[in-house]
Amino acid sequence: MPASFVEGALLAANICPVPMDPDTWLSVLVTAGVEDDETVVLNEADKQTVFAHLEQQYHSLMRNDYTLPDALMVSLRGELAQAFAEGFLAVWPILSRIGMM
Q1: In this structure, are residues 84 and 12 in contact, taking their beta carbons and an 8 Å threshold?
Q2: How distant is the alpha carbon of residue 90 from its chain centre?
Q3: Measured in Å, how far apart are the chain's first and last C-alpha atoms?
Q4: pLDDT at 61 over 90
Q5: What is the distance, to the nearest Å, from the Cα of residue 99 to the centroid of all Cα atoms in its chain?
Q6: DSSP character for 75?
Q7: 86 contacts 4 by C-beta, under 8 angstroms
Q8: How far apart are CA 75 and CA 37, in angstroms?
Q9: Sign of the alpha-carbon torsion through 76, 30, 62, 48
Q10: Which in 7, 35, 37, 91 has the greatest CB count within 10 A?
Q11: Alpha-carbon 53 to chain mean position
Q12: Using an 8 Å Cβ cutoff, are 8 and 86 in contact?
């Protein structure tokens, strides 16, 4: 997945008002939200990288100093912005279905 897709997915996870187990949405980073019968699992190194960025993004949001990555700011109407939106929208339905019941 492009970095902008991951950024959007993590932003959706971070703004969910209910704390969620990341394993409920992590597979989206591999499948891009396409549902499959097979269970998809990230390897441990990739999980740790994602968790570190999730935590960094969370703290930036809590300090009210989160900004989109520079590459996204430059191309707000390009493929990177589309991937960002797709990442956000791939995770959000999972969070709203599970976390906001």
Answers
A1: no
A2: 8
A3: 29
A4: yes
A5: 15
A6: T
A7: no
A8: 35
A9: negative
A10: 91
A11: 10
A12: yes
CA–CA dist 75, 51 (Å, integer) = 26
Q: What's the CA gap between 75 and 81, in Å, rounded?
A: 7
Does pLDDT of 37 surpass 60? no
Q: Round to whole Å and give the CA distance between 70 and 40.
A: 30
What's the Cα-to-Cα distance from 35 to each of 28, 41, 50, rounded to whole Å? 9, 13, 21
* Every domain of the chain and the residues it spans: 3-99
| CB atoms closer than 10 angstroms to residue 51 | 14
Burial class from Cβ neighbours inside 10 Å (0-12, 13-18, 19+) for residue 23 reads exposed
Which tokens sit at 81?
A: 């912005």
pLDDT, tens digit, 9 for 90 and up, residues 3-12 = 889 999 999 9
